[in-house]
Design brief:
CATH architecture of the largest domain: 3 Solenoid
Radius of gyration: 17 Å
Strand content: 25-35%
Bound molecules: GDP-perosamine
Number of strands: 24
Strand order of the largest sheet: 5-8-11-14-17-20-22-23-24
Number of domains: 2
Length: 219
């Protein structure tokens, strides 16, 4: 079926931001699935509310596209869990790109990637599934971003940065070129990353101290 309708999972701030992007693009949202609406009521008021994730099973996978409106914060796995559950059942998650974003024709975005308002994704980039590139993030050329990451608003990546899977980059982080950030890492708000970061680290503060796997050193 061409132009499949969308079903939004989650009813909070991230879901509302995605819904506004889709509504502006004249996409049809036929359901929102959330135990309660905690934001965006005005956007969802004419859309049927389903209270339980099992209600998604009322839609056939071939008839709809899912939108993962569950946001992503450190130490919370709900977004990834929901994605994996319904992907396994044969559902497809829409890739959402805001009209205000600029995504190079020479970059690739996997299923479920969300490029929010005012982002730039330059040429040669690869973004893996279910990753959020949040508002006003700038990703320069030839960067690789793994699955289930969240680049929070105002992240800036210079060229050829590699971010492995399940990394949370908080608001206003800057990363110089050729850096590798290992999987399951959290980069704290406003950090300037000038050295690569091993997996399973927490990086924060003005000097970008790394704590993780027993390692503590300057970034
Ligand atoms: O199991 C669930 C479930 N548990 C909570 N299934 C479904 N389908 N929905 C669930 N929810 C709903 O997710 C809650 O009822 C609520 O509506 C929503 C979470 O909303 P919240 O506003 O707490 O967070 P968010 O996920 O929209 O946004 C977070 O992540 C964004 C990227 C926020 O922390 C934002 O600040 C951030 N920008």
């Amino acid at each position: 079926m061409k132009n499949k309708p969308f079903v939004m999972i989650g009813g909070g701030g991230h879901a509302a931001a995605l819904a506004e992007i889709l509504i502006k693009q004249k996409k049809r949202i036929v359901g929102v699935v959330s135990p309660e609406l905690t934001a965006g009521n005005i956007l969802f008021e004419n859309i049927e509310l389903f209270l339980n994730d099992d209600d998604i099973l009322k839609f056939r996978p071939e008839d709809i596209l899912l939108v993962n409106g569950i946001g992503s914060m450190p130490y919370k796995s709900l977004r990834e869990d929901v994605y994996n559950r319904f992907k396994k059942l044969g559902y497809v998650f829409a890739t959402v790109i805001a009209d205000s974003a600029l995504v190079s024709d020479y970059s690739t975005l996997e299923c479920g990637v969300q490029i929010m308002n005012n982002c730039v994704v330059n040429l040669g980039c690869k973004v893996d599934e279910n990753t959020i590139i949040n508002t006003s993030t700038s990703i320069d050329h030839d960067c690789t971003i793994g699955a289930h990451c969240h680049l929070a608003p105002g992240t800036t990546l210079s060229g050829q940065v590699v971010i492995e899977r399940n990394v949370h980059v908080a608001t206003g982080v800057n990363v110089i070129n050729n850096i590798i950030i290992g999987h399951n890492t959290i980069v704290g708000v406003g950090t300037n990353v000038t050295k690569s970061i091993p997996s399973n680290s927490i990086v924060y503060g003005e000097r970008s101290v790394i704590k993780g796997l027993g390692i503590t050193h300057d970034c």
